[in-house]
Amino acid sequence: MRLFVISILIGSTLIATAQSKKRKSDKNSLEGVPFKERLVTGGGLGLGFGSQVDYFSISPLVGYKITEKLVAGTSLTYRYTKYKYYTPALKLIDYGVGPFVRYSIFKNIFVQTEFEYLNYEFPTTPTESIRESYTSFLAGGGFFQPVGNKAVFFLTALYNFSYKEPLPGVYSPYYSPLILRAGISFGF
Questions:
Q1: The 3-state secondary structure of 99-158, one letter per residue
Q2: What fold characterizes domain 2-18+60-186?
Q3: Alpha-carbon distance 161 to 164, whole Å?
Q4: How far apart (Å, rounded) are the C-alpha atoms in residues 68 and 185?
Q5: pTM of the full predicted structure?
Q6: What is the pLDDT of residue 27?
């Protein structure tokens, strides 16, 4: 399954690249645009403090504009969670990677597909945790709003096609197949 999804993402990128080279006169073509100007950077940041749990998340992303409307890239994820209702507090770390392809279909609206690999930790006792791996095939869309000359605010809603309702007593990194994200990207 992983190989199939990765093949689809790579294949989509190669097809899009071939199409952009084929249509050199197309207004969406970026031929002649320097590599640096085709890069897209950004990501998301999460932070929460409470009496029971503290939370920090950072998800940087880097992408490359294949055409004016098509971006392929990857995001990284790092999450730190501190469960304070345990004594001593239990500190857990999650990390992952998510290659994606994003296509602008109309002005500020885009569709996106992504394959996510997440290595996450969850508590089993007040002093122990288990580390698991979780892969997801995500697809959906979103909206972006320019904020300045080279930055945009984005809101994305993705559906996790790999989601399965966890059995009682089993921990999942997601509580729902719907994943909402917001952040700022630079370079669009």
A1: EEEEEEEECCEEEEEEEEEEEEEEEEECCEEEEEEEEEEEEEEEEEEECCCCEEEEEEEE
A2: Porin (2.40.160)
A3: 9
A4: 15
A5: 0.75
A6: 57
Q: Which residues, at least 6 apart from 139, have a Cβ–Cβ distance to it below 8 Å?
A: 111, 112, 113, 114, 158, 159, 161
C-alpha–C-alpha distance, residues 21 and 29, integer Å: 8
Are residues 57 and 77 in contact, defined by beta-carbon separation less than 8 angstroms? yes
- Domain ranges across the chain: 2-18+60-186
- H or E segment at 96? strand 90-106
pLDDT per residue over 115-167, tens digit each? 999 999 988 888 888 899 999 999 999 998 988 887 888 899 999 999 998 88
Q: Token pair of 120, please? A: 């996450």
